[in-house]
Amino acid sequence: MHGNVYGWCQDWYGKYNSEGVADPKGPAEGSHRVLRGGDYGSSARSCRSVCRLHKEPSERGPGYGFRLVASQGP
Question: What is the reported pTM?
Answer without folding.
Answer: 0.77
